[in-house]
Amino acid sequence: xxxxxxxxxxxxxxxxxxxxxxxxxxxxxxxxxxxxxxxxxxxxxxxxxxxxxxxxxxxxxxxxxxxxxxxxxxxxxxxxxxxxxxxxxxxxxxxxxxxxxxxxxxxxxxxxxxxxxxxxxxxxxxxxxxxxxxxxxxxxxxxxxxxxxxxxxxxxxxxxxxxxxxxxxxxxxxxxxxxxxxxxxxxxxxxxxxxxxxxxxxxxxxxxxxxxxxxxxxxxxxxxxxxxxxxxxxxxxxxxxxxxxxxxxxxxxxxxxxxxxxxxxxxxxxxxxxxxxxx
Length: 279
What we know:
- It is a single chain.
- This protein is α/β, with parallel strands linked by helices.
- It has a single domain (3-260), classed as NAD(P)-binding Rossmann-like Domain (Rossmann fold, 3-Layer(aba) Sandwich).
- It is 45% helix and 16% strand.
- It has ten helices and seven strands.
- The protein has helices spanning 13-24, 36-48, 63-76, 95-114, 130-133, 151-162, 170-194, 211-215, 217-224, 235-246, and strands at residues 3-8, 28-33, 53-57, 78-84, 117-126, 199-205, 257-260.
- Strands 3-2-1-4-5-6-7 form a seven-stranded parallel β-sheet, sandwiched between helices.
- The protein starts with a strand and ends in a 19-residue tail after the last strand.
- Pfam families: adh_short, adh_short_C2.
- This is NAD(P)-dependent dehydrogenase (Short-subunit alcohol dehydrogenase family).
- Keywords: Oxidoreductase.
- Belongs to the short-chain dehydrogenases/reductases (SDR) family.
- Residues 3-180 form the Ketoreductase domain.
């Protein structure tokens, strides 16, 4: 049976570039996302290069949608790579939708694929540089474990923290908290998956030249000034990072986050610091 790579958010940006990179490595590609037209465009591109690809519309915030995705992927072959690149930026929805998509969506993806992953496999969840830039005191880390025991209480607890802040900043706060949770969830999920021989890591992008990045372009260019590499990242650069992390030859890599931000965090970037930088 062929190796299958599932990519959420595969219709554009980092997911689209990663689909190409994984296709070049011989994987069958299964894409999902909320916009069927975008997915079909990528499928057409992949098939034109000889890659076996399929698209299935779905929403990571919908638990049953992700279960259906996992079942479909498992019918195609051995699911050895799941790259969860779907997410919402602060400009793409209200705080509750952002939290449900980014935080609960990650739980849904990991849970759905737990039963179907091949023992050589790797799940890669995607965080954001905001997880490092948002002050730690903001993070309701005591709520995070509820994601495994009581999803309703988990969401109420996460949003309760968001609602402590003024309305004008709540989308940004929800985004930062949700992406910090992704790192925690991937790290702590490594033991569960490890018992089945599967690895779990998270990848944390900085500012990249993507449609989602364009929505945050002013802020992104501010952070570039703090970076060691004074430009936006190119989607193919992180696509090859995903591919490398998923490679079974990286079999001892699990339970950790990989920050790919051009040296922005190391350069002292801060949401409270809008000028200068020593990166």
